[in-house]
């Protein structure tokens, strides 16, 4: 984007009555000047008639317009600020992703402002409303659909975490759940398991569930809604509650795949309370690769994700967008999990 095409951080009423972010075209029309003249006025360039400059600035004051941080960053070489929206800072997965973002941002001399959305769509929208005024770009986890995100961005570049390329029009960095589940299910089936359940999370578009179902179908294993239990929380407690329900509906399962490692650890705790030995009576497979998995007994077999690389790729996407380049696509924008076999499965 050229400097004289910069966005303005206010809204105007469109022809259909809806509110939209004003552009430099709206400012120029109001002041009766060209876009280039508006750009010179707001960026305090010398090559502009003082009376014209005052007219532009007066129009901006009357309408409470002000240039966005992103637009100013295209013409001024100040520090870049990236907004980072994390859904749950209590979950040890997300601080590791944040560490990757912080490391990559620091290497570029960027600043990072963090927001905990608490897996709440209203807080997500609040985050976008605030960060679109404070940051030059936004990276984050969002449940809201693209059209909702677009209404709250104000033209600021956005990079979504853990969205597949088929799920969003924005730049994204994803986790290749299909490649991970292919490894994990091959391990469980190779160990003789045919009755495999899943403890699913409620956050996100469901790529892990889709990958699990695809692998179950590929191996011709029995599965229906009773083989999958939803966990209201992505936590050990959530995994315990989900495992209790799953054992109630499918007491014959011999293995379970947890949406994440915390849920998988909770599954092991619940299984032991029900008299199931892990892995003799019930094999447990996690997904994340948290260090916690090495500390529990038995140690958790998991699909390990390079979480810092996930964060670094997100910063690379931001850098590309700011440079006017195409974002990374396909395999270049995916992190592939790797099976780490321990003693739980």
Give a short synopsis of this structure.
42% of the residues lie in helices and 19% in strands. The protein is of the alpha/beta class and 345 residues long.
Summarize this structure as a short list of keywords or feature phrases.
13 helices, alpha/beta, disordered N terminus, 14 strands, 6-stranded mixed beta sheet, 6-stranded parallel beta sheet, single chain, 345 residues
Topology overview:
Elements (H helix, E strand, L loop, with lengths): L6 E7 L5 E5 H8 L3 H8 L7 H13 L6 H7 L5 E6 L6 H15 L3 E6 L4 H14 L2 E4 L5 H8 L4 E4 L9 E5 L1 H14 L5 E6 L5 H12 L9 E4 L4 H14 L5 E4 L2 H13 L9 E6 L3 H4 L5 E4 L2 H16 L11 E2 L2 E3 L5
Parallel strand pairs: 3-4, 3-5, 5-6, 6-7, 7-13, 8-9, 8-10, 10-11, 11-12
Antiparallel strand pairs: 1-2, 12-14
Question: pLDDT below 50 for ≥5 consecutive residues: which ranges?
Answer: 1-9, 14-20, 70-76
Our measurement of the CA-to-CA distance between the termini, rounded to an integer number of angstroms, reads 52 Å
User: How would you describe the oligomerization state of the chains in this entry?
Assistant: single chain
Global structural class: alpha/beta
Count every beta strand, where a strand is a DSSP E run of 2 or more residues: 14
Percentage of residues in DSSP E strands: 15-25%
Based on Cα principal axes, name the global outline.
Answer: elongated
Major sheet description: 6 strands, parallel
Which bin fits the share of residues in helices?
40-55%
Tally of separate helices: 13
**H-E order:** EEHHHHEHEHEHEEHEHEHEHEHEHEE
Q: What Rg, in angstroms, do the CA atoms define?
A: 24 Å
Within the largest sheet, what's the order of strands?
Answer: 4-3-5-6-7-13
Mean pLDDT: 86
């Amino acid at each position: 984007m050229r400097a004289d095409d910069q966005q303005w951080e206010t809204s105007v009423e469109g022809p259909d009555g809806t509110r939209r972010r004003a552009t430099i075209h709206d400012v120029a029309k109001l002041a009766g000047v060209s876009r280039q003249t508006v750009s010179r006025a707001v960026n305090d360039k010398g090559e502009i008639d003082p009376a014209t400059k005052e007219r532009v600035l007066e129009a901006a004051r009357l309408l409470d317009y002000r240039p966005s941080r992103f637009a100013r960053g295209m013409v001024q070489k100040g520090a870049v600020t990236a907004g980072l929206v994390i859904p749950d800072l209590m979950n040890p997965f997300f601080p590791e992703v944040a560490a990757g973002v912080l490391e990559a941002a620091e290497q570029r001399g960027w600043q990072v402002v963090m927001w905990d959305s608490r897996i709440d769509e209203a807080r997500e929208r609040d985050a976008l409303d605030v960060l679109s005024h404070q940051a030059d770009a936004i990276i984050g986890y969002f449940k809201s659909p693209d059209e909702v995100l677009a209404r709250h961005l104000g033209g600021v570049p956005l990079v979504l975490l853990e969205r597949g390329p088929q799920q969003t029009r924005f730049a994204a960095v994803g986790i290749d759940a299909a490649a991970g589940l292919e490894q994990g299910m091959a391990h469980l089936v190779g160990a003789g398991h045919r009755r495999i359940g899943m403890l699913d999370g409620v956050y996100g578009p469901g790529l892990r569930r889709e990958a699990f179902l695809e692998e179950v179908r590929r191996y011709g294993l029995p599965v229906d809604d009773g083989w999958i239990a939803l966990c209201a929380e992505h936590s050990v407690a959530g995994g315990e509650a989900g495992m209790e329900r799953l054992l109630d509906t499918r007491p014959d399962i011999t293995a379970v795949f947890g949406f994440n490692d915390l849920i998988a650890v909770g599954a092991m705790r619940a299984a032991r309370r029900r008299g199931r030995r892990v892995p003799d009576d019930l094999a447990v497979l996690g997904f994340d690769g948290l260090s916690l998995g090495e500390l529990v007994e038995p140690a958790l077999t998991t699909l390990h994700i390079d979480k810092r690389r996930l964060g670094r790729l997100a910063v690379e996407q931001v850098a590309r967008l700011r440079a006017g380049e195409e974002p990374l696509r396909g395999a270049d924008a995916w992190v592939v999990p790797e099976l780490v076999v321990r003693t739980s499965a």
